[in-house]
């Protein structure tokens, strides 16, 4: 099939090709087989099936920019604009082993591997929309071991596994309804569960618990949040969302707001954003939950500009992203007085939206309480539910990569 005719066909279909189409539509040249998905990642093809939510962002130019007046694809795939291209592309070729054995913290990733993961996540969007019967992970079992409450993380991982043809073993309250309640150690629990499954997704109330689990297990472990430590898959979906919404990751300004001391999402996000050029971070929080010095020191060591301020309105007017977080009552223990002191100090409402730039977005890892008012939801700059949806694609990508490779 000629490349020009394939472009015309792809444009005319107006859908992302399903997994079967991607795997069977091969192009041969000089003895090299290149899949359609590879061509996509090298900026040769672009679906016109773009959601209204994403089309409003700079990530997707208007139709004429993308396809030209004659309907021919004349613009490089916008994923390159947002995420860049991996310099070590050969390492991410189809069939190669994934570079990481476990997903434990944000420091594991460099910019090249982030770019490659985001390309796989983009492919997963097509699979989720057009290939409900995908069998990529058929025969694999995932165990979700959650010692803390979760809605989005646990269900998105389970949905991701099932959408790729895998199966799930789950416990949603392992702290109370597993042998941990009888005093069993985490290590013994992991040794047992790895005998029943192929990959473990763990959320725990202690920082460092996921690393302990990974050091014990002989199968991949994904950290789904370890106390006030880190939440790497959340950070990956956050960066993916920023790229999709803003259209770039270099040269952006991000305001991190709320519980920055206990918020594992903002810690992991700060680590990942440090991989990009000319990023500036603003820390806006009550004094009792200020960003910890280890993150500030790390950013300084990487040459990332950051500023601590109490003025949310000024930050909102400057930033491309306002990343709001919940004040986490469960991290305060008996010091409810400190929680009440911090709660409600910074709220994103219509007044904040009024000073934000038109292209900027509001993000939140969810759940929210009252730190974003519900009347913000109807504004197109409210990206937090699109952000949650992106978690499915990122987690589909991670499961696929850890279990079967690139």
What does this molecule look like?
α7 crosses α18, α10 (186-193) packs across α11 (209-216) and α12 crosses α18. It is globular and about 50 Å long. With 406 residues, it is of the alpha/beta class. The strands form 3 sheets. A 5-stranded parallel β-sheet has the order 9-8-7-10-11, with helices on both faces. The chain has a 4-stranded parallel β-sheet with strand order 4-3-5-6, with helices on both faces. The chain contains 18 helices and 11 strands. Mean pLDDT is 79; it is low at 1-77. The chain has helices at residues 3-13, 19-24, 36-41, 52-55, 63-67, 78-83, 111-130, 152-163, 174-177, 186-193, 209-216, 232-246, 264-273, 293-301, 312-318, 336-342, 350-355, 384-404; strands spanning 26-29, 32-35, 141-146, 167-171, 199-204, 221-226, 253-257, 280-284, 305-309, 321-324, 361-363. It is 41% helix and 13% strand. It folds into 3 domains: 3-92, no CATH class; 106-231 and 389-404, Rossmann fold (3-Layer(aba) Sandwich), CATH 3.40.50.1370; 236-385, 3-Layer(aba) Sandwich (Rossmann fold), CATH 3.40.50.
Features:
allosteric enzyme, transferase, 3 domains, globular, Rossmann fold, alpha/beta, four-stranded parallel beta sheet, single chain, five-stranded parallel beta sheet, 406 residues, 11 strands, disordered N terminus
Span from first to last CA? Answer: 25 Å
Query: What is the name of the CATH superfamily of the largest domain?
Result: Aspartate/ornithine carbamoyltransferase
**CATH level 1 name of the largest domain:** Alpha Beta
- As for the number of domains, it is 3
Strand line-up across the major sheet: 9-8-7-10-11
What percent of residues are in strands?
5-15%
CATH fold name of the largest domain, please?
Rossmann fold
Name the helix and strand elements from N-terminus to C-terminus, one letter apiece: HHEEHHHHHEHEHHEHEHEHEHEHEHHEH
Helix content: 40-55%
Rg (CA only):
21 Å
In CATH, the architecture of the largest domain is: 3-Layer(aba) Sandwich
Largest sheet: 5 strands, parallel
Query: What characteristic shape results from the CA principal axes?
Result: globular
Individual helix count: 18
GO molecular function, one term: aspartate carbamoyltransferase activity
Pathway: Pyrimidine metabolism; UMP biosynthesis via de novo pathway; (S)-dihydroorotate from bicarbonate: step 2/3
Function: Catalyzes the condensation of carbamoyl phosphate and aspartate to form carbamoyl aspartate and inorganic phosphate, the committed step in the de novo pyrimidine nucleotide biosynthesis pathway.
Keywords: Allosteric enzyme, Pyrimidine biosynthesis, Transferase
